[in-house]
Amino acid sequence: MAAAPTIMLRDDAALRVFDTGQGRLPIVFQHGLGGDAAQVAQNFPDGPSRRRLTVECRAQGGSGAGSRRPFSIEMFADDVLAAADAAGLDRFVAGGISMGAAIALRLAARHPDRVAGLVLVRPAWAFEAAPQNMRPYIDVAELIRRLPPDEARGAFASSATAARFRRQAPDNLASLLGFFERENATVFAEVMQAIAADGPGISRAAAGVLAIPTLVIGCGIDLVHPLVTARELAETIPDAIFTEVTPKAIDKDRHFAEIRAAIGGFLDRNFNNQDQS
Questions:
Q1: Tens of pLDDT, residues 59-71
Q2: What pTM did the predictor assign?
Q3: What does the pLDDT read at residue 272?
Q4: What is the full DSSP assignment across 199-254?
Q5: Is residue 277 part of a domain?
Q6: Strand pairing partners for 8?
Q7: pLDDT beyond 70 at 1
């Protein structure tokens, strides 16, 4: 990762852009909802042969929210494409985690001339907006916007949804509870509510004609990123490779190591570190 991010102005939002600035293979790789560039670095196999660009989306990481509304996956994808333009990346591999995967899918389908390959890690969306697995984000957002922080957190922690996550997906629950502690919780609640009700805006038919190397990574013990969603994407996108990794709830270190290995192997096999620009 670059020693320090640059700042890109989009509307009146100051967005942090991280660019490793090295390597012949350009990759644009995005974080998940509420994540940041550090989350990307944990999942992506950075190295001297790969140049990675990551934008911290509005109201996430160190990026400002700006005044433009509503937040949407389309907005975030447009911001990412603008950053790629500014960096001189004409053609690149697009990838991301969860929300970042939705952004990457949108970029690949809407800008096929720009995207040479696709990496979808723990996708939360396939083709429909507002999937049921994203409903807990809307619940959390509504509580944050309606109640004082401690009351909001307590109300969610004692809910039936939290009880189900505690039993079936404790790592997801930890993430959801963490949203109540954010310094920008109120504005981030707007982001959560809008993005959870959104989708990539890409039809099954559009995904079914993607003609680029694609890797889809999924794991179990995850109610927000269902394994069935990852499999659905892998079965729809022609010749996509599907890889299942160890769930974070079982072994976080192994989970991230397997993701990095899967992505690194995919990039080496399909691009051989060639310049895509």
A1: 999 999 999 999 9
A2: 0.96
A3: 77
A4: -----HHHHTT--S-EEEEEESS-SSS-HHHHHHHHHHSTT-EEEEE--TTT-HHH
A5: no
A6: 15
A7: no
Which of 145, 176, 193 lies at the terminal end of a domain, its last residue? 193
Whether residue 104 sits in one domain with residue 85:
yes
pLDDT of residue 274: 55
The answer on 72 and 148 residing in a single domain is: no
| Single residue among 142, 166, 193 that ends a domain in this structure | 193
Main-chain dihedrals φ then ψ at residue 236, nearest 5 degrees: -90, -40
In this prediction, residue 22 carries a pLDDT of 82
- Angle at the Cα of 95 from the Cα atoms of 90 and 97, rounded to 5 degrees: 150
Q: Identify whether the C-beta of residue 121 lies closer than 8 Å to the C-beta of residue 98.
A: yes
Q: Report the domain count for the chain.
A: 2
Domain-embedded: residue 104:
yes
User: Does one domain contain both 147 and 250?
Assistant: no
Report percent pLDDT > 90 for the chain. Answer: 96
Residues ≥6 apart with Cβ < 8 Å to 204: 126, 127, 236
If you ran DSSP here, which 8-state letter would residue 177 be given?
H
User: 226 pLDDT exceeds 80?
Assistant: yes
CA 122 – CA 48 distance, rounded (Å): 25
How many CB atoms neighbour CB 155 within 10 A? 17
Domain around 98: 6-129+199-271
The 3-state secondary structure of 89-158 reads: CCCEEEEEECHHHHHHHHHHHHCCCCEEEEEEECCCCCCCCCCHHHHHHHHHHHHHHHCCHHHHHHHHHC
The CATH number of the domain holding residue 16 is: 3.40.50.1820
Around 229, how many Cα atoms within 13 Å sit in the side-chain half-sphere? 25
**pLDDT at 2 exceeding the cut of 50:** no
